[in-house]
Amino acid sequence: MHKRHFLKTLFAAVLLAGGVGAAQADALSSAEKSGVLRIAVPQDFPPFGTVGPDLKPRGYDIDVANLIGREMKLKVELIPVTSTNRIPYLTTGKADLVISSLGKNPDREKVIDFSSAYAPFFNGVFGPGDAAVKTAADTAGKVVGVTRGSVEDLEFSKLAPPTANIKRFEDNNATISAYLSGQVQLVATGNVVAAAVNERSKLRRLETKFLIKNSPCYVGVNKGEAALLGKVNAVIAKLKASGELNQVSQHWLQAPLPADL
Amino acid sequence: MAYAFDFSAVLEYREALLAGTGRTLMLTGIGAVAGLVLGTAGAVSRAWRLAPFDRIFAVYVELIRNTPFLVQLFFIFFGLPSLGVQMDEWQAAILAVVINLGAYSTEIIRAGIEATPRGQIEAAQSLAMTRRQIFFHVVLPPALAKVWPAICSQVVIVMLGTSVCSQIAAEELTFAANFIQSRNFRAFETYFVVTAMYFLLAVGVRQVLALTGQRLLGRRSK
Description:
The complex is a heterodimer.
Chain A: H1 2-17, H2 27-34, E1 36-42, E2 50-51, E3 57-58, H3 60-71, E4 75-81, H4 86-91, E5 97-103, H5 106-111, E6 112-119, E7 122-127, E8 143-147, H6 151-159, E9 165-169, H7 172-180, E10 186-190, H8 191-200, E11 207-214, E12 217-222, H9 226-242, H10 244-253
Parallel strand pairs in A: 1-4, 1-5, 8-9, 8-10
Antiparallel strand pairs in A: 2-3, 5-12, 6-12, 7-10, 7-11
Chain B: H1 8-11, H2 14-47, H3 53-65, H4 69-79, H5 89-114, H6 118-126, H7 131-161, H8 173-184, H9 187-217
Helix pairs in contact in B: 2-3, 2-5, 2-7, 2-8, 3-5, 4-5, 5-7, 6-7, 7-9, 8-9
């Protein structure tokens, strides 16, 4: 243990000597020293992160990253990552935070810590505002479109009452077209898909009726960074209270932040 | 190759396969009967230049024969509701099949009608038969008999083409295959079984049509 610590310090010293301010024990104080917070964000996963027409990253995660930087009074350095390398970027010290539509699961919790949730991410049943559907049982006798073989197909098929008329389509596009053209009354899909539809089509809005599977997004922080994690959690709580996070949700997901997030 | 074949994973779903087969046959049957009636009407309109129907059928035939069946189906199912024409997946599928077969059979049957010797019609006219009598008794039976093999092939093509109706969630045989494959991930076994089923269906439909032709039109058709 002692030896390991020594090696770690030595390694950090070498890096510092080389002019790279990183990989110190306390990410918060080193970020505050350099004035820069390095945040890994997606750029291939709309609406959480894409590249805008000006070739700059933009999206829900980027907005949250900038808000956290503003609250911590640090300059934000955005590091584009993919879904496969986002955790390695954090664990190898190339980023201080991962804000990359990251869901929580036991395997990941062994490797990194998670903040409180900052964005909703779920599969659910969606439909027009006037459809009186609150639980899976309410879909009895209704026509529900779903993309065949998707997670929501498998899960909803288990939940749905036998009289629910499930129409399975080839891809999300056909499922959504079936909804927009009135061929199905409800759809089971992801909230991100619903947001994309609401953004592009004003024909028939998709509103959340009930959740099938919930997996909200969290900010990823390295293990042992309690100070940074505490700070991030405080900022997220503040952004939720001030309504600013709700604005981000309205802008990118076309829906208010769920109350229980 | 370490893949272990497991056909029992497909047989578990035999009810879905049988239901799908029934619906494929239903779609083909209704489509064939209504499509051939439509095709006969189109053929006589075009062959005998019955204005304005000859023009209308000409446009219809060109429109349908030069566009993909899948697109026609999508247009009916996803497109028409924008104009207030709402059809469920079966109505849309049947309509698309009828329209499609109608266009192809118009041209096939027209060829048969145009091959009727002029003298045969003149002979009928000299017997003071009405136009209607001439058509139904003198022209149509031999015309259909001449082109019956082509009609049989076209109906089989249409039956195989109904597989795309799975795209609008009409639960026919291909839908059953895709559904089963999305549950057991046994792509080889599932599609192998369904391919064999389509083959048997096609052979069966061809036999039934050939027999029907013999019964209705006499021995000329084989």
